[in-house]
Every structure is written in C-alpha cells, then in structure tokens.
Specification:
About 15% of the residues lie in helices and about 40% in strands. The chain is mostly beta strands. The strands form two sheets. Strands 1, 2, 3, 4, 13, 14, 15, 16, 17 and 18 form a ten-stranded mixed β-sheet that branches. The protein has an eight-stranded mixed β-sheet with strand order 6-7-8-5-9-12-11-10, covered by helices on one side. The chain is globular, with a radius of gyration of 19 Å.
Length: about 375
C-alpha cells in the first residue's frame, strides 16, 4: 500500500508587517493571539525564488490563541524596507484576501469588537454564505479578518473567539483551483457555491460587484499530533465576475506586507512531494533538499521541514512537518513529534502546557 501524507490542519497564516511587535500587540488585543510558539530572527536562505534571488534577513514569530485554531506568523523584513501593496486590495484579487477567525458566538464577538477602539469593523453583522452570522474587521495595516461561526474550543479560557479557522482566496477559475484545494489539500465538501451580489461583501472593497463564491471544508476530521488544537478549517474561493483581478504579490517579495501564505501542518513530506508533482504543482521550495535525510531544519525554538507550492494563480501554500515544538520554554520542555504515531493526536493536557508560553502585551 502506498504510504500517504497526513494533513493535521491549518498551522498558521503568514502576515507581513512593517513593525513586528507593534502588530503582534494588536493581534493580542483583537484576537487573543498571546501564546508565542516560536520566534526567529535570522536570514531566510532557502526562499530565493520569492526574495529576489538573494537571502534576506527577517524577523518572525508564530503566536496562537489557546482556545483553538491555527495561529498567525507575524513577519517583518529586518534587512530591507518592506514594500507595501501599491494599489487598493479589491475582493476577487489573486491571493489571500482575508483570514477567517473562529467565534463560538459571532454576535457576542461583534459586540466586544464594537467596544474595542482597535477594531475597525466594516459594515455590521451579516449572514455568511453558510447561513451563520459573520462580520469583517480591518487591522491597522489594511488586512481583512472575517469572524465566522465555529463551535469547537480546544481549551476554554472564556473568550468568544479562537484562532485561525481558514482563509478567503481570490482565484481566476474556481473549478481549476480545486485541483489544489480538493485534490491535494483534501477540502472535499462543498458547503456553499453561489454567484451574485452578496450583502456581507458590500462594505468590502469592490464588494458590491458580482462574484462567484465557493466555501469548502474537509468531510473527515483531520488526523495528526496537533489536529485537535487546529480543529476543522475552511477555504473560501472567490472569483470576480465583473473585472480582471490583480495579483497581490506581483512584483513584491514573500514577506512584504499582507497575507503571505496559508500554512498546513503535515506528516510525510516525501509522499506529499510526490502527490504535488503528479498533480502538476511541484514544490517550489523544499528544505529537505538542503539537509541530510531525516534531519530537521532549525526554526528557532522549533524544528522540522518545510516546503511551498503555488496554486494556479500563484498564491503560496506552505507545508510544515513539525519535528519539535516548545511547550514550556522557561522550563526547557519541548515535544519531539518524530517518533510518535503520525495519526494520533497529542493528549490535550500535553498541548495545554502551551499556556506557559503566554506573553502579556506589556512584556513585549
């Protein structure tokens, strides 16, 4: 039987910023992203296809909300001036348009955000294409976040919202894009597929135009060491029907301001590499080609392997095979995932130790 790869869930969404700590403080304030998994300030040597052919110095950290979901990878160039988007992002443009953040009670989260001066809410409470309530908020840097209904909680700390539960991606052809999102990433269940003008888009840039939207998820629960932390995830594909979309990273580097990539936590990079190549989307970056077989790539406090592919429109999708993660850095404790059953989730009490990695904004 051919060995298969495992996708545990969305590990993080990369967010390029100009001032890392300032942005992270805002994400703690808005989304309770206060558990720092790792922080790394060194040269990115292996991303040459996306960094002008030269290694680039960068400073990045990954933070999560312990209530569940993926995290944010907050990312800043430290050796060059980041290049912001040179035009207004419009819905349907090619790339990651919005990060979806989970809420167990969207109306409650809306009320909380309405009282937060840092929250720039666009429009009001609306109905999402899945029938649940939703709303959008823009951060101080122009990035869009959509609060969506998701009842799953990993560790209840009393907040109404959790972490990353998906992304909205602009594509030129939804059916063509499914060769990546369905065939490789396993989003095999269509929740909604509609075309027209949508009330929940109206307050967004060009949101009064016509679009085709498809919301997809995975029909089976994800497996893997970190799968219970991440939970279910969703991808929304958006196709502009009235205009020609622009590529959000055309002429810019990976890591420049905006949503850089969506990252999936996986096991069995070799099997995934084969599947991507057979599907016509070969790895464009692959750390396993730069380290000895079976070894890990140093990622600051964590270790593992990573690779990238592009979807049909060039949106970056990252895969990380996590080998080691810190769970209580002050105590010198970390988890080695390499020798564990790749399908079995880690015990909740074990991942609950991540609470020792909490950082208070005043300490940043």
């Amino acid at each position: 039987m051919k060995e298969k790869y495992i996708i545990a869930g969305i590990q993080q969404v990369g967010i390029g910023v100009e001032h890392l700590y300032e942005a992270w403080k805002e994400y703690i304030d808005l989304f309770n992203m206060d558990i720092r998994i790792l922080e790394d300030d060194k040269v990115a040597e292996l991303m040459l296809p996306y960094t002008g052919g030269k290694p680039q110095q960068r400073h990045a950290l990954i933070a999560i909300n312990i209530q569940g979901g993926g995290g944010f990878e907050v990312w800043q160039y430290s050796g060059r001036k980041p290049q912001p988007l040179g035009f207004t992002l419009n819905m349907g443009d090619l790339g990651i348009l919005a990060c979806k953040v989970k809420s167990r009670d969207v109306a409650r989260t809306f009320e909380e955000f309405s009282k937060n001066p840092k929250a720039n809410i666009l429009g009001g409470l609306q109905q999402n294409i899945d029938g649940h309530q939703t709303f959008y908020v823009r951060d101080s840097y122009g990035n869009l976040f959509q609060l969506v209904q998701d009842d799953y909680i990993f560790k209840d700390e009393g907040h109404s919202n959790g972490g990353t539960v998906g992304v909205t991606i602009g594509v030129t052809d939804i059916d063509k894009a499914m060769t990546v999102y369905h065939d490789i990433l396993g989003y095999d269940k269509i929740i909604a597929d509609e075309a027209g003008v949508f009330p929940d888009f109206e307050a967004l840039p060009s949101g009064t135009q016509q679009f085709r939207r498809r919301l997809i998820t995975h029909s089976q629960p994800r497996k893997g060491s970190l799968s219970e932390l991440f939970g279910t995830s969703y991808i929304e594909l958006v196709q502009a029907l009235e205009r020609t979309p622009k590529k959000l990273y055309e002429g810019r580097f990976w890591g420049d301001p905006g949503f850089i990539q969506v990252c999936f936590d996986i096991r069995n990079m070799d099997a995934l590499r084969t599947k991507c190549a057979e599907s016509g989307y070969p790895f464009t970056v692959d750390t396993t080609q730069n380290i000895k077989e079976g070894n890990s790539f140093d990622m600051g406090d964590a270790a593992g392997q990573f690779a990238y592919i592009e979807d049909p429109d060039g949106t970056l999708i990252e895969f990380v095979e996590t080998h080691k993660i810190p769970v209580a850095k002050k105590l010198g404790l970390s988890l080695n995932l390499k020798n564990r059953n790749p399908e079995k989730p880690l015990p909740k009490w074990m991942l609950g130790m991540l609470r020792f990695m909490r950082v208070r904004p005043e300490k940043i």
